[in-house]
Amino acid sequence: MRHLKHIIHCYEAVDGSRLQVLNGVNLDIRKGEFAAIVGGSGCGKTTLLNIMSGILMPSQGEVLLDGQPIRQGKHRIGYISQTETLLPWRKVIDNIVLGPELEGIPKKERYERARQLMESGGLSGFENKYPFELSGGMRKRAIILRALAHDPEIIFMDEPFGPLDVFTREALQQEILRIWSQKKLTIVYITHDITEAVSLADRIIVMSRRPSTVQREVPVRLSRPRDVVEIRYEQEFMELEREIGAMIRGIDPEVRRSDE
Amino acid sequence: MTNRQEKWIRRIGPFIVLLIFLALWQYLASSNKINTFFFSSPVDVLMDFIDLFVTGRIWLHLWVTLIEAISGLMIGLGLGVAAAFLFGNFKILSLLFDPIFVAVYGLPKLALGPLFVIWFGLGLKSKIIMSTLLVFFLVFFNAYAGFRDVNIELVNTLKLMGASRLQIVMKVTLPSCVPWIIASLRSGTGAAVGGAIMGEYLGTNRGLGFLVQTAGANYDITRVMSVILVMCILMLILDTVGKLIEKSVLKWRPPVD
C-alpha cells in the first residue's frame, strides 16, 4: 500500500557540502505487515522513516500511498520515536486524546476512547498524572496509546524502546505484538537490534552502508503468536539472527562458514 | 550543617539579622550617637508607618502606584509576548528589529522620562508607559528565548498527527513558553513597580514615588523611610502572589529538588 520509488536523499551540511544518505531506495510496505528496517549506524534508517511518513521531502523520488503521492498531515500516522514526545504540561489522559482533539472529535467521545485505551493498556489510575510522575516505560505506553487513539493506518517506530531497561523493553515488545495482531495494524519498525527485529517482524529490510539502498529483504517465517523471550531460543531464530548480523557486518555468511 | 539546622536558619535567620540591625540603629539613635534628623530611628519610622495607615492618607497613593504598576505589568506582558511571537514567526522582523531592541534595552529608561512627561503629561499615562517599557523588554527577551527553545520533536509529533499551524502554536509553542513568561512575570513585577515609581519621581501629585519625593524635599527622613517600608511590603505581597501563580501554573514540572 505504501510504495517508495527510487528515493534519493542528500543533506546539506553547514559548510555547504552535500552528504548523500539514501541512494535509490525502492520499497513496498504491505497492509497489515510488521516490517523491520535494520542497518548499521548512520545508514539513513531514520531519514528513510521520516521520508516515508511525510515529515521530510526526499531530494529525488516519491512516496506513493495506494498509488497517490503522500501529503503531510493528510493521513492517520502514528509515530513513536526514542525520545519523549508527550506534552509535559498535559496530564496523561489529555495527552492521549491529542489526536482526536486535533481532528475535532467531541470532548466526551475522545475522553471515553482514551479511558478505554488506558484501561486495556495497563495505565488506568494514571489518567490525571503528569508525564514526569510516570516511569519511562509507562510514558512509552502512554505514547503508544496516544498513537492508537488516533486510529492510525500505519505506525512508524524509530528505535522506540532504545533507552529503556531490558525487562521493560521486553514487556513493551510483547505489548506491541499484541496490539498489532489485535488491531490489525501496519507497523514499520526501525532498529539496529537484530534480535528485536527478528522477534517482532514478518519481514526484515536490511540497509546497506551509506549512501544506502535496500541490501536485502529477508522474510521471517517464525510462527505467531510469538513470545519475544522464548522465541530467541529456537533454532530458526538463531540462524536468521546470525545471517542478518553477518549481512550488516558486510560478511557473506557462506564464506564465513567455510572458513571455520 | 544538617538539613534541620539549615531549615531553621532559613526560616528565622534573616529576621534575627534584621532585628540586630534595627536594635543597633535604635540604640545609636536613642543615645544620640547619630543625628536622627538625617537617619531617623526604627521606632519613629514604625510610628509614622502606622500613622500613614491609621489616618488613611496612604491609601490613595498606594492605590495609584498599584494601578500604574499593574497596568504596566499587564500591557508590558501582552506586548512582550506578542512581539516575541511575531519575531519568532517572521524572521524579517527579527532581522530588522533585533539590533534596535538591544540598543533600546541597554538605554537607561529614566533618560526617556522627560519625553514621556512632555508627550503624555503628568497623569497616570506617563507612569504606565514608563512601567510598560521596563516590563516589555524583560518579557520580550524571555519569551523570545522561550519561542526559540520549543522542542522540535513535539512540533513534529503534532505535525505528523495532522495538526495545522495554528494548532501547533496553540498546543505546543505557547504552552512551552509559559515557564519563560512566568519567570519574566516575577521579575517583571519588580520592574513594573520600579517603573511606576520612577515615573512618579518625574512629576506628579500622587503615588508612593510622589510621597517619597516630597518628603525628601522637606528633609522628612522618617517619612521617606516609612514610605520605602510600604514599598517593600507591597513588593513582598506582589512577589508572594507571583510565587503562588507560578506554583499553580507550573505544577506539571518535576520539582527541582
What is the CATH C-level name of the domain at 2-75 and 153-259 in chain A?
Answer: Alpha Beta
According to CATH, the fold-level topology of the domain at 2-75 and 153-259 in chain A is Rossmann fold
Counted up, domains of chain B total 2
- Provide the succession of SSEs of chain B: HHHHHHHHHHH
The Rg value of chain A, from CA coordinates, equals 19 Å
The gross shape of chain A turns out to be globular
The chain-level mean pLDDT of chain A equals 86
Mean pLDDT of chain B: 90
Give the beta-strand count of chain B: 0
Return the string of H and E elements of chain A: EEEHEEEHHHHEHEHEEHH
CATH homology superfamily name of the domain at 2-75 and 153-259 in chain A: P-loop containing nucleotide triphosphate hydrolases
Q: C-alpha Rg of chain B, in Å?
A: 23 Å
Helical/strand content category of chain B: mainly alpha
Number of helices of chain B: 11
Considering the chains and any ligands shown, give keywords for the structure:
heterodimer, A: 260 residues, alpha/beta, Rossmann fold, 4-stranded antiparallel β-sheet, 10 strands, globular, disordered C terminus, B: 257 residues, mainly alpha, MetI-like fold, 11 helices, 82% helix
Describe the structure in your own words:
The complex is a heterodimer of chains A (260) and B (257). With 260 residues, chain A is of the alpha/beta class. Chain A has a domain at 2-75 and 153-259: Rossmann fold, CATH 3.40.50. Chain A is built from 9 helices and 10 strands. Chain A has helices at 45-53, 92-96, 98-103, 107-120, 136-149, 166-183, 194-200, 235-249, 253-259; strands spanning 2-12, 18-29, 34-38, 60-65, 68-69, 77-80, 154-158, 187-190, 203-207, 214-219. In chain A, the strands form 2 sheets. Chain A has a 6-stranded mixed beta sheet with strand order 6-7-8-3-9-10, sandwiched between helices. A 4-stranded antiparallel beta sheet of chain A has the order 2-1-4-5, covered by helices on one side. In chain A, helix 6 (166-183) links the parallel strand 7 (154-158) and strand 8 (187-190). The model of chain A is unreliable at 251-260 (pLDDT under 50). With 257 residues, chain B is an all-alpha fold. Chain B folds into 2 domains: 1-34; 44-249, MetI-like fold (Orthogonal Bundle), CATH 1.10.3720. In chain B, 82% of the residues lie in helices and 0% in strands. Chain B has helices at 3-30, 36-39, 42-54, 58-89, 91-106, 113-120, 124-148, 152-160, 165-201, 208-217, 221-249. In chain B, helix 4 (58-89) runs parallel beside helix 7, helix 4 crosses helix 10 (208-217) and helix 9 runs parallel beside helix 10 (208-217). The longest helix of chain B has 37 residues, at 165-201. The chains are: A alpha/beta (260), B mainly alpha (257). Chains A and B meet through helix 3 of A and helix 8 and helix 9 of B.
